[in-house]
Structure formats: structure tokens, C-alpha cells
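Each letter names a residue; C-alpha cells follow underneath. Both lines appear below:
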Amino acid sequence: MLKATLQILVMISLTSPIGASASTLYRCKDEFGHATYTNYKADNRKCTVLSHDETRSSRSASKSGGNTNGKASPADFPKVAGETQKNRDSDRRYILEQELAAEQKHLEEARKSLTEQPSGAGLNRHNPSVIVSHCMNATWMPCGARFPISNK
């Protein structure tokens, strides 16, 4: 069964690139205003083209979507001097390194306290039978009990 399933999946994966060719993508709206995205244009719906059938290799370098004029931001956008930005970056790095060192110290302390505990310590507080037996044997009302517990 597993071998047959594997063979089917291999056959699908080998044939799927043939059927997965690019095509024009449409957004069509029906009479109720519901949008449907499809690769074929329906005659009875209002359809708009979202993307054309175009492969990336056929695009020219100028149409790559990159910024060709060399400006990263508008002219009126606030600028920061390179040295100021480097100082800010180094301050941020220092703060992050200090936080990392503090967290690593806390991790080591937690590991140390965990290894110092006796084997199995702390596991009983999550065991319901141990909690119930502890509550039944106590002389005072433990565990938030509102009614006295009788030991019969």
C-alpha cells in the first residue's frame, strides 16, 4: 500500500511541472460581489486581469522592479549621517549583547539549581494521587479545602 502510494506521488510530481505552466490570473466578481480568483475568464462575470502570462526569463533587466535611479528614498525623507547610524548600531549591539549575557547567566543558574535537586524532586506536585494523599493526611485544611476532610 505504501509502495503504491509512493509510486502515485512520484508520477504526480513528474507530470505536474507540465501542467503547472504560468497563465493569466483573473479576479472575477459574481452578481453578489463575491470575488473568485481563477486562470480563465468567465463570460458571465466581471473579470479583471491581475497578472499576465509572462515568464521571468523573458523580462528585460530594466523591468526587474528594482530602483534604477539609485535613490533609496525621496529627497525630502529625513537622512541620518553614516557615522551617527554606526554609533546607533553599535549602541544597539552593546545592549543586545548585555541582554544575551544576562539571559545566558540565568540559564546557567537554572541548570545548576536543576542539577542540585534530588532525583524526582518537584514531580510529586503534579501527581494527583500524591496531592490527594497529602491532603487526606493533613490535620489542617490544605489545598484550599473549604470543608473538613475526614479520614475514615
About this structure: Residues 82-116 form the longest helix (35 residues).
